[in-house]
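[INFO] parsing input record for Thymidylate kinase
[DEBUG] input buffer:
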Amino acid sequence: MRAYQLFEEGTEFGYLPSEYTYRALVEALCQEMDLYKARKVLESMLKKEGGDRTRIYNIYLRALCLLNSATELLNVLVSMLQTECQPDVITLNIVINGFCKMGRIDEALKMLNDMTTGKFCAPDAVTFTTIIGGLLNVGRTHEALNLFHQVMRENGISPGVVTYNAVLRGLFKLQLADEAMRVFRRMLADGVAANSNTYSIIIDGLCSSDQIDEAKKFWDNVRNFGALAARSLNSYLSLSFPLRCSIRTVRMENNNNGNLKVGDDVSRGAFIVLEGLDRSGKTSQCSKLLPYLEGLGHPTELWRFPDRSTSIGQMISAYLSNQSQLDDHTIHLLYSANRWEKSSLMETKLKSGTTLIVDRYSYSGVAFSSAKGLDFEWCKAPEIGLLAPDLVLYLDITPEKAAERGGYGGERYEKLEFQKKVAESYRALRDPSWKRLKLAAGFYLEDKFSAYEDNS
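[DEBUG] output buffer:
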């Protein structure tokens, strides 16, 4: 290979290639199965002063995956440790990915065990996603779902859309369409927004499973809610994207959704809030509205309150999962503080032209806390001054119907009698500006979605 000859000639004069050249060279050598020369290049690069040795090894390991040699992967890992070069999570993920591609799943699982027990650095979402995908590729469904549903979360990692997509793809490949759709519903319940890949995987998977009618229904569900919400925006606000009006602040007075913020009459994104009882289908409908608006060319983001990524949000999360106990007044103020700490960023996003779809907002805080018996006006007070939505969509479902849905009862507030009180609080709180949607179906995507507006 002429490239290797040039490399050798350069090293004689003290020249070492750039990272890009090094990567291209070792990959080409591995593709030609010339492991001897590939090692020589690695050894030369490791002598480079000031070089990131871990990164140099990582590039080499990634190239080695082209050889399908599990032994060589382990040899390089051992070499790293012997030279006191600590592998990072990227190193281990490359090795695990190599094992999975070779069908050496047990070796991948052993390495994951070493990571979770402290022998190596802790795994990340990529680690789990890679192994789960590898297990599904060889039909080891039970082990894959155990990692996904239990072990991943035990290690403090919440699966994102990439992990969910990997699970969905693997399950559909195994013709386990029903299990795949259960995972999709869990995805929505966890507040993870689906993306275009998610929808493509599901539609393709349903079609491959000869469930053509279900695929059509699913696609109708994806399209119809987005179209309905967009029509509500246009008809209610009489505005087109981007909006050109002032951002308002919450006043919490019936018949008056918000107060104008002075000096903000600029082109901006829309602020859309979805409210409703637990298991009413908010998360599902948010995930449909997001790709619809993106498909129309509007920059759009999906937000959810409480935002459990912040320190305040983590306190709320522990409370909701019954891991801690807090006074009702305290938790109400924490909910409000969680919205206030994100308010500045929300305003920046809106002013930049980004539309925000928000799953729960101030109105949930008031409805749920007042349902506990706290004073209605006291509950509203901390919310006054927050950014006011341009549109509130209230998903109207009876508490009894919500209680029939999968996963009900998993969190503190998911109790039928309490949800009835929440529904009463929402009725007292709702003003004529809200759009009330009664769903014939939605969260489970079982039937064609239908809805109508009712402000009564």
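[INFO] Confidence is low (pLDDT under 50) at residues 259-265, 440-456.
[INFO] shutting down worker
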